Amino acid sequence: MPKLNESLLSQLDPFKGLERAQIRSILDMATTHRFDTGEAVFHEGADANRFYCLLDGYIRVVRVTAEGEHVTVTHIPAGQLFGIAQALGHTHFPATAFAASEAIVLSWPQRQWPSFSSNYPGFSVAAYRTIGERMREMHDQVVEMATQQVEQRVANALLRLITQMGRRNENGIEVDFPITRQDLSEMTGTTLHTVSRLLSAWEKRGIVESRRKHILVRNPHQLVILAEPSAKH
């Protein structure tokens, strides 16, 4: 790929406020990768020998349970760090990262993490803010699994997707990357059949529009009502 311009990093949280020469040095140490949709960036259990920054596209993070079930932990939008195992004290990746859409990714050797953290203050702050946000999101999902009905969990998952990674058009807000009903079932700890049944019912009510690898929320307000534990449907 051609040499990347410093402007690509200058507006991203981990690198804001750095001098142009510092950003150039960071880019010169980076390896650039292009991933097709569905391609793995790294696998759960592999040596965490690199850390990553997503320049464009979306990343889906998946874990496999002891029973062999796939659980989608989170989705990562462009501009964020990921695969930052060392910051969590891990020597191996605790999950698998897949490209949820075509993605452009920068990576650096894990041995660079300490110097990045000490030499670029904003990098360390952004990294730990990212960790905090993801831990909070995972905590929310655990609480939902334990306390909410399936319909509420699926509604909440869709709300997170359109809030964090939605694109508004004249018909509503669509999830800005290919997503299947199977993906939703893995996010919410339910079956493909149940997700399909819910989306079909919501489509008849004009709340969503669902077709192959595409979900559009036509009525976000009604989806919020569905997500409320005390809602009467």
Question: Which keywords apply here?
Answer:
233 residues, alpha+beta, four-stranded antiparallel β-sheet, 8 helices, 40% helix
Protein architecture, described:
The chain is α+β, with helices and mostly antiparallel strands and 233 residues long. The protein is 40% helix and 24% strand. It has helices spanning 7-10, 20-29, 113-119, 121-147, 150-165, 181-188, 192-204, 220-227, and strands spanning 31-35, 40-42, 50-56, 59-64, 70-76, 81-82, 96-99, 103-109, 166-169, 172-175, 208-211, 214-217. Strands 1-8-3-6 form a 4-stranded antiparallel beta sheet. Strands 2-7-4-5 form a 4-stranded antiparallel beta sheet. Strands 9-10-12-11 form a 4-stranded antiparallel beta sheet. A hairpin with a 5-residue loop joins strand 4 (59-64) and strand 5 (70-76). Helix 3 (113-119) crosses helix 4 and helix 5 (150-165) crosses helix 6 (181-188). The radius of gyration is 19 Å and the shape is globular.
- Can you give the mean pLDDT? 89
**Subunit organisation of the chains:** single chain
**Strand composition percent:** 15-25%
In N-to-C order, the SSE pattern is HHEEEEEEEEHHHEEHHEEH
Low-confidence stretches: none
Number-wise, the strands total 12
End-to-end CA span: 52 Å
Sheet bearing the most strands, described?
4 strands, antiparallel
- Rg calculated over all Cα atoms: 19 Å
| Class based on secondary structure composition and strand pairing | alpha+beta
